[in-house]
């Protein structure tokens, strides 16, 4: 129905836009749309809630809505919990129908990969639509610039458990992607290596892989490692692929290598100093409203 409504609005706008409001300019109505991959793990929603709270603190009085880019996550939440979360297209269509004229769409993804670029294409399709939104801006993901990577490295290092000693490793699990944006993972590894040579970045689906990380740990004779997600939420990947009991989990593989593993099940969105990077990206695009 939303898609049909969009088409109808477009057709009506192409012939009747000059008559809208009898020539009177519409009052500006600003909104924020926060867009995450999503999670079906209740415990992982702490990260979502923390981002929501920080954005509301930074933008009091501005209406904030949410969307998830993962169709699988949205459908599972609806089927199992009766919880409806819009896709970015659905959320933007509702905001257009509700009269928003300027919308800041903030990506809560970690890197500018497939999910982020799909979001940018979706958002652009709403900008300038007849009888639609006057302006739609998209904020960069967590890691977009060299300055972002340096800032996030410092933030992650500040969040490592205090009891960890420098001869012990910290292994960060990123998602990884076949998209060219995957280069951000080896990129941020470079910046970690400059600050703390025993911090390693691996990915679930691409490179650096668990095998790459395990080889480095073996060469260095590491005996203990803290496992932390380099993902906004500590969801299924963190709880199963990283810290689970399965024979191919990172914890099991590294334990088999003689390394004592200490999982830290907190997503990056649970740390205020990391959320601040996303919030600053949001401030950047809100400042473009005109």
Main sheet, how many strands, which sense, barrel? 4 strands, parallel
Question: Could you say which overall geometry the principal axes of the C-alpha atoms support?
Answer: elongated
- How many domains would you count in the coordinates? 2
The rounded distance between the terminal residues' Cα atoms is 31 Å
Number of helices: 11
Mean pLDDT: 91
Share of residues in helices: 40-55%
- SS class: alpha/beta
**Measured on Cα atoms, how large is the radius of gyration?**
21 Å
Order of helices and strands: HEHEHHEHEHEHEHEHHEH
By CATH reckoning, the class of the largest domain would read Alpha Beta
- What are the low-pLDDT stretches, counting only 5+ consecutive residues below 50? 1-23
Q: How many β-strand runs?
A: 8
Biggest sheet: strand arrangement: 2-1-3-4
Content of β-strand: 15-25%
User: Architecture of the largest domain, according to CATH?
Assistant: 3-Layer(aba) Sandwich
CATH topology of the largest domain: Rossmann fold
SSE blueprint and pairings:
Blueprint: H1 2-16, E1 30-36, H2 45-58, E2 63-68, H3 71-81, H4 88-97, E3 102-107, H5 114-126, E4 135-139, H6 146-159, E5 169-174, H7 184-195, E6 199-203, H8 210-220, E7 224-229, H9 236-242, H10 250-256, E8 260-263, H11 272-286
How does this model look, in words?
By secondary structure, the protein is α/β, with parallel strands linked by helices. The protein folds into 2 domains: 19-142 and 272-286, Rossmann fold (3-Layer(aba) Sandwich), CATH 3.40.50; 146-266, Rossmann fold. The chain is 44% helix and 16% strand. Strands 2-1-3-4 form a 4-stranded parallel sheet, with helices on both faces. The longest helix is centred in the first third of the chain and has 15 residues, at 2-16. The protein starts with a helix and ends with a helix.
């Amino acid at each position: 129905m939303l898609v049909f409504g969009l088409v109808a609005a477009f057709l009506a706008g192409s012939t009747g836009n000059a008559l809208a409001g009898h020539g009177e300019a519409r009052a500006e109505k600003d909104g924020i749309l926060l867009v995450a991959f999503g999670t079906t793990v209740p415990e992982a929603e702490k990260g979502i809630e923390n981002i929501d709270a920080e954005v509301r603190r930074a933008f009091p009085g501005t209406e904030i809505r949410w969307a998830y880019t993962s169709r699988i996550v949205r459908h599972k939440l609806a089927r199992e919990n009766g919880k409806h979360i819009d896709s970015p297209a659905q959320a933007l269509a509702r905001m257009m129908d509700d009269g928003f004229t300027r919308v800041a769409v903030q990506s809560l993804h970690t890197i500018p990969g497939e999910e982020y670029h799909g979001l940018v294409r979706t958002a652009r399709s709403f900008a300038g639509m007849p009888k639609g939104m006057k302006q739609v801006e998209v904020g960069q993901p967590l890691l977009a610039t060299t300055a972002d990577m340096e800032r996030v490295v410092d933030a992650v290092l500040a969040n490592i458990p205090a009891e960890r000693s420098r001869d012990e490793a910290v292994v960060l699990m990123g998602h990884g992607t076949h998209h060219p944006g995957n280069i951000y993972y080896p990129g941020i590894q470079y910046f970690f290596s400059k600050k703390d040579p025993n911090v390693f970045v691996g990915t679930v689906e691409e490179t650096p892989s668990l095998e790459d990380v395990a080889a480095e740990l073996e060469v260095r004779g590491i005996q203990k490692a803290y496992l932390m997600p380099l993902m906004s939420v500590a969801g299924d990947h963190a709880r199963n692929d990283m810290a689970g009991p399965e024979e191919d989990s990172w914890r099991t593989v590294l334990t088999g290598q003689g390394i004592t593993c200490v999982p830290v099940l907190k997503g990056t969105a649970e740390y205020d100093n990391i959320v601040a990077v996303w919030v600053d990206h949001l401030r950047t695009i809100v400042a473009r409203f005109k």
